[in-house]
Each structure stands twice: as C-alpha cells, then as structure tokens.
Design brief:
By secondary structure, the chain is of the alpha+beta class. Helix content is 27%, strand content 15%. It has helices at residues 79-89, 122-131, 141-157, 219-235, 244-256, 269-278, 289-298; strands at 32-34, 44-53, 56-63, 66-73, 99-105, 111-115, 120-121, 170-172, 178-180. The longest helix has 17 residues, at 141-157.
C-alpha cells in the first residue's frame, strides 16, 4: 500500500504515523519569524511528530486553538521552491490544502504551516475499498477524478505546478471534500545526489521526462500523474500491481518502451481515451486540467461508475503479478 513508503505531507492528519525517533529538534526553534506576516509564531505549539522522510519532518500543532500541520524542511531550499511556496500561500480553493504561513527558522530550516485535514489519504481509501473494509466516506470514482482535476486546474491557473502528485497527496475529508496537498513543486531536484537510479516515493506516477531531469516538472507532468491515478481509481489496484519490487524493475520500460498501467477491459471508452492521453509520452499531447474538468463534468452521470454493490478490484493479468486475476 502506498502509505508504507509515502512521505508525510502538508495537513497530514490522516497519514499513518511513522515510528517516532528521538530528535533534539522536535520542539520549534526560537525565534521564529513569519516570512509573510500571517503567523503569530508565539501562538504555534508543536504537539507531536507524525513522521520523517528524507526532506524533513511533519508535526501536528495547535495555532490559536485550532489544529494545524507543520512541515519542517531539513535544509533551506533554493529560491525557486520558496517562491512557489509563497505563491501557494495565496491560493485558496476548496480543492487544495491551504498554506497558512511559511516560517523562516534558524538555522535555515523553513517550516510550512497548513490547515489540518482529517479523513483519509486516497491511497488508504482505495486500499480499504478494494479489501472490503468500511470507511465513513464513499465518494465515487468520478467524484474523486473530478475533484483532483479541479484542484490541478486551480493550481495551474495560479501559475503553480504540483510536482509530486500521487494518491498519498490527495485527501478525502470526513465531509467528503477532496483536497490536494504538497503542491508547489517537488524537492527531489533540490538534492544533487538524486538520480534516475534512486527511486524514492512514488516513481510510478512520474512522467517519463522527469527521470532524466527534474527541471521538467510542468503542468503536463502533473497530468501524466493524474492519468496514472485514473488507472488506480478504475481497477482499485496500484499501478503495475501491489508488489513494489516488481514495479521498480519495470520503470525503465515505462520510460523507454511506453509501458503503462492497465484499465478494466469493460472500462468506458471515453475514460480509456482520457487515461491514454494523460499518460502520453509526449507532454504536448496531454490534455490541460481545464479540458479534463469539462470532460468529467459531461460524463459525471456515466452509469458504468455508479455504485451497485461492494467494489470489486480488477487485477490486470500482468505476467509479473503474483496474485491471480479476479
């Protein structure tokens, strides 16, 4: 399941806690200064550490009697990344996790303060749905696809890119609101040691051009990731199956030989065409998020996606997939 190796993200009140480590920096550094003037640092109280990854730490905190999430980066990113974050601060949309402030913390470990989101990460929701476990939310495949597309449209219209879109960056709240987190560009290209041979996170959602150069992060790369999410929504199975070891060995074929995750055989043709176009090897051939929103609205009542009983996952007959097709 994606959560097993996903990075904690903005607003991640719904991520599975990672084993806590003793860290001398678990308390907020002092003094803190709000780079945009939006956060009164004296009223920010760290409550607990949710998890760590290679780029930083995510904490649950209280701010003015409300829960917030605080993402502390290990190092000061390049100015381009901070510029994207400050632009994200000005974005307010029902489809994105709000950035409440960006704090400059000595010695150069910025903190991103965001709204707190309860509910499920999409990765967990899809895993529960496929295994028959109950959830207290039940958005349809098209509801999720439309909300993610609308979030991307808002992000792109705001002059931003997401840069790291995959199901653990999509939240389904207890009110069935669907929000995108961690938009504003990936931190992978901030690390000079990162290369195509080091696959961290969710590379199955990366557009082929990103494996050669992370400066190719564009709205078109976001749309490729969206296409991969469409396959997961349709089948209920992670791209190329649930075995990470098998999937990692396939990445060269994704990049060089146009290997793509499959859909159900009876998937509506319009959905197949949309998914195929989003996952095109050529960035220029991928649709814009605004066009996808219009298409999904037109097909929102498609009976093929209406709930008529428990969700049945479809295991594509990949030759490397150990589990037999259902």
């Amino acid at each position: 399941m994606g959560l097993r190796h996903s990075a904690p993200c903005w607003g991640s009140g719904v991520s599975e806690p990672i084993a806590k480590e003793k860290d001398p920096d678990t308390m907020p550094p002092s003094p803190l200064h709000a780079s945009d003037g939006s956060i009164d640092c004296t009223k920010l109280q760290i409550l607990e550490t949710l998890g760590h990854d290679s780029h930083g730490r995510t904490d649950r905190a209280m701010y003015k009697q409300k829960q917030v999430a605080v993402r502390t980066l290990n190092t000061l990113p390049r100015p381009t990344y901070l510029t994207q974050l400050r632009r994200a601060y000005s974005l307010r949309s029902p489809y994105t996790v709000a950035v409440l402030g960006i704090l400059d913390a000595s010695p150069g470990r910025p903190k991103i303060v965001t709204e707190w989101v309860d509910g499920y990460q999409l990765s967990r929701f899809l895993s529960y749905r496929s295994s028959g476990r109950r959830t207290n939310v039940n958005p349809s495949t098209l509801d999720i696809a439309l909300a993610v597309a609308m979030g991307l449209d808002m992000i792109h219209e705001h002059g931003l890119i997401h840069g790291n879109l995959h199901p653990s960056k999509v939240f389904i709240t207890s009110n069935e609101e669907i929000k995108l987190s961690d938009y504003g560009g990936s931190l992978h290209h901030e690390d000079p040691t990162f290369s195509r041979m080091f696959y961290e996170g969710e590379p199955y959602y990366w557009a082929p051009e990103l494996f050669d150069d992370f400066s190719n992060e564009t709205p078109e790369a976001d749309m490729y990731a969206f296409g991969v999410i469409l396959t997961y929504l349709d089948t209920g199975v992670p791209p190329f199956g649930p075995d990470d070891r098998c999937r990692n060995s396939l990445l060269p074929d994704v990049v060089d030989n146009d290997l793509r995750p499959a859909l159900r055989p009876n998937c509506p043709q319009w959905y197949k065409d949309l998914t195929h176009d989003c996952m095109s090897k050529e960035p220029a051939h991928r649709p814009k998020a605004s066009d996808v929103v219009e298409l999904l609205i037109r097909h929102n009542g498609d009976s093929a996606f209406m709930d008529d009983g428990p969700f049945q996952p479809y295991y594509p007959p990949y030759p490397w997939l150990r589990k037999s097709s259902k």
